[in-house]
């Protein structure tokens, strides 16, 4: 099953934090394991300290190729960050500030497929099957759950031994930089990604969303067709989904953000679940109503501002100079 979520049209405007800039393609050498570190978007000092400590330790390991990206969720679909990730045709490790499940579906939405590997951040029951035929495994480690850099490095070393044992190569152009920083301007984004291992194409999200975010592909599969149309902070479609298949990776509610232990899988709807689903529907409708009301109020304020400005211009024009 393919994931075609149309995220290539996303627009990104703000700057990422990069200590150095390299203006050529990175070397993802066949003899080295690729480790991707995706920075936290918040930029808090303790997070930066942890990232820099991990980067320094990883760089000291001569069997690793380390790539540092801005926040995975904020990357442009056709930008240098996603282009680089698509160029890795072998196993890789992704260290990021997201649940592994949501990170995996962000990657899949951008054409980066594979098997979601088992890590300390991922319960056994949520290890995914490949979206497409691919021998490649992607291991995602949630940095939010790691207390210190030593824990992260122990897990990286464990996973690196697995990657080496698989003996997969990387097919891409190379340079000789062991540590590579991707420069890409980003802003905090808000859009859904679909977990296609749970989605049954029931169409609830398509029918419920008022903003034209969802569409159907030629196989009648629901896709995120217009991600930019999604209203920032609105997770209503996630709550209405009977399978818990819609993920907003940056939402405060773990069930919406992709926590597999909180995102209850509801394979069928029986009488005992009707009350619970009614609660989800009520919450979703309330969130949608609030968002529509906020959009209308924002437009009204903008209109009032335009009218006030027009009136001021007319008064200035009427003054005798």
Descriptive report:
Helix content is 35%, strand content 12%. It has 8 helices and 10 strands. The protein has helices at residues 45-59, 80-87, 100-109, 149-166, 204-208, 236-240, 254-257, 271-318; strands at 33-38, 64-69, 92-96, 115-116, 137-142, 179-181, 193-194, 214-216, 222-224, 246-247. It has a 6-stranded parallel beta sheet. α1 links the parallel β1 and β2. α1 crosses α4 (149-166). The termini are far apart. Mean pLDDT is 75; it is low at 1-6, 8-30, 167-175 and 265-278.
Question: Reading side by side through the largest sheet, how are the strands ordered?
Answer: 4-5-3-1-2-6
Radius of gyration: 22 Å
End-to-end Cα distance: 71 Å
Query: What's the pLDDT, averaged over the residues?
Result: 75
What share of residues is helical?
25-40%
A few lines on this structure:
With about 325 residues, this protein is α/β, with parallel strands linked by helices.
List keywords for this structure.
about 325 residues, 6-stranded parallel β-sheet, two-stranded antiparallel ribbon, about 10% strand
Secondary-structure blueprint of this entry?
Blueprint: E1 33-38, H1 45-59, E2 64-69, H2 80-87, E3 92-96, H3 100-109, E4 115-116, E5 137-142, H4 149-166, E6 179-181, E7 193-194, H5 204-208, E8 214-216, E9 222-224, H6 236-240, E10 246-247, H7 254-257, H8 271-318
Parallel strand pairs: 1-2, 1-3, 2-6, 3-5, 4-5
Antiparallel strand pairs: 7-10, 8-9
């Amino acid at each position: 099953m393919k994931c075609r979520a149309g995220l290539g049209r996303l627009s990104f405007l703000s700057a990422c934090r990069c200590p150095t800039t390299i203006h050529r393609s990175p070397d993802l050498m066949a003899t080295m394991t690729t480790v991707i570190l995706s920075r936290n978007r918040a930029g808090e000092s303790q997070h930066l300290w942890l990232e820099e400590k991990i980067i320094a330790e990883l760089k000291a390991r001569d069997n690793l190729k380390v790539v540092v990206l801005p926040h995975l969720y904020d990357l442009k679909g056709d930008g240098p960050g996603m282009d680089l990730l698509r160029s890795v045709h072998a196993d890789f490790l992704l260290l990021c500030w997201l649940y592994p499940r949501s990170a995996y579906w962000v990657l899949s939405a951008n054409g980066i497929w594979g098997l979601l590997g088992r890590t300390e951040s991922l319960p056994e029951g949520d290890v995914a099957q490949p979206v497409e035929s691919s021998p490649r495994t992607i291991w995602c480690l949630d940095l939010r759950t790691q207390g210190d850099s030593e824990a992260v490095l122990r897990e990286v070393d464990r996973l690196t031994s697995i990657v080496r044992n698989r003996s997969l190569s990387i097919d891409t152009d190379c340079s000789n930089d062991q540590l590579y920083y991707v420069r890409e301007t980003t802003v905090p984004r808000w859009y859904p990604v679909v977990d296609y291992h749970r989605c049954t194409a029931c169409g609830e999200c398509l029918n419920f969303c008022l903003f034209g975010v969802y569409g159907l592909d030629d196989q009648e599969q629901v896709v995120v067709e217009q991600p930019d149309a999604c209203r920032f902070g609105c997770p209503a479609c996630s709550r209405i989904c009977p399978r818990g298949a819609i993920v907003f990776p940056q939402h405060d509610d773990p069930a919406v953000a992709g926590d597999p232990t909180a995102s209850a899988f509801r394979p069928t709807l029986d009488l005992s679940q009707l009350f619970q689903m009614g609660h989800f529907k009520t919450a979703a409708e309330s969130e949608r109503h609030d968002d529509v009301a906020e959009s209308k109020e924002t437009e009204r304020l903008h209109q009032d501002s335009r009218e006030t400005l027009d009136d001021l211009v007319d008064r200035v024009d009427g003054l005798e100079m």
